[in-house]
Amino acid sequence: MSPEVVESLPATVPHPSLSREQQHEIYHYLKLTRLLEERLVNLYRQTKVVGGLYRSLGQEATAVGSAYALDKSHNDMIAPLIRDLGAMLVIGATPRELLLQYMAKRDSPTRGRDLQIHFADLRRGFIGPISHLGDMLPVMCGIALGSRLRRESRVCLVYMGDGASSTGAFAEGMNFAAVQRLPVVVIVENNGYAYSTPTSRQMAVERIVDKAVGFGVRGERVDGNDVLAVYDVTRRAVEHARAGGGVTLIEAVTFRMKGHAEHDDQRYVPKELLAAWAAKDPLQRYERYLLETGLATPDELEAITQRISRQLDDDVAFAEANPMPEPASALLDVYAS
Ligand SMILES: Cc1ncc(C[n+]2csc(CCOP(=O)(O)OP(=O)(O)O)c2C)c(N)n1
Ligand SMILES: [Mg+2]
């Protein structure tokens, strides 16, 4: 079973509640995610990226659309995974700090101690991924419970892969969140594979959203390549959670267009499957929508792209010029005193 294609119909009228400016902003984040990753691939090939590079190519709409549905005025929070660069950007991580972090440079958020998107900023509302799959959910349950005890209105959004949704940590976290009716939204990004294992070889359910029934929570399934559909479904889940309704499990059906990481040539993925999903590219699809509804002109989209490219030129130059950390700094911030 490869993910059944749940394609939502192409929208032909402007979104009823998002303004033109907001929809341009969504385009900015989709494009920024794509172009930043392209810069990272370049740096990786020059051996300037330390560690692995995990692309979100083809999945950008899931990360961007869901994070865009959160509300900063309530201090909502995300727990991203490796393929949620777009969500990190939406919530406020900057391309410059991400480039520094991928290159483990002196002025990176973790000063070279960790890599990729493994860093946190509670003020901006993101916690760093834990490598152990599934564990972000129990951690976010703790944050959500703590917030509720302090009578805060925060909603916590947790990202999971299809593979992660087969772990014990996922089951424990779902059950705890469900029984406590925590203000948690879980997005399972069903991208067809976990490493080289197709979804059908690591779970027996046809639709991941059906797992919601077993935990007694709301479930919704969405076309993960339709950024506005992802936004709508997440917005509903966030409002439901904030009103005290508890957890929603969202299955976003999408596809991993690259291997697990840059070293993986994904020869195990059928070519026809890649071609079929390439035709559903989330960025092109959103571009078509903006142009066909008259929400943007080609010149406006080009101007957004040019702005991003100039910003990335500066940020890449800055990150490349930044030195590696001093070896002695490895001991800083390790002990409290
Ligand atoms: C508990 C645990 N088991 C195995 C791994 C090794 N591992 C890292 S990523 C990955 C595949 C993840 O697949 P999925 O959850 O579908 O996310 P995707 O990479 O497709 O986004 C595995 C097996 C791990 N990090 N944690
Ligand atoms: Mg997967």
TrEMBL record:
Cofactor(s) listed in the protein's UniProt record: thiamine diphosphate
CDD domains with a match to the protein in the record: TPP_E1_PDC_ADC_BCADC
The enzyme's E.C. designation: 1.2.4.4
Gene Ontology BP annotations: branched-chain amino acid catabolic process
Dehydrogenase E1 component domain span: 33-327
Entry's family note: Belongs to the BCKDHA family.
Function per UniProt: The branched-chain alpha-keto dehydrogenase complex catalyzes the overall conversion of alpha-keto acids to acyl-CoA and CO(2). It contains multiple copies of three enzymatic components: branched-chain alpha-keto acid decarboxylase (E1), lipoamide acyltransferase (E2) and lipoamide dehydrogenase (E3).
Protein name: 2-oxoisovalerate dehydrogenase subunit alpha
Annotated organism of origin: Chloracidobacterium thermophilum (strain B)
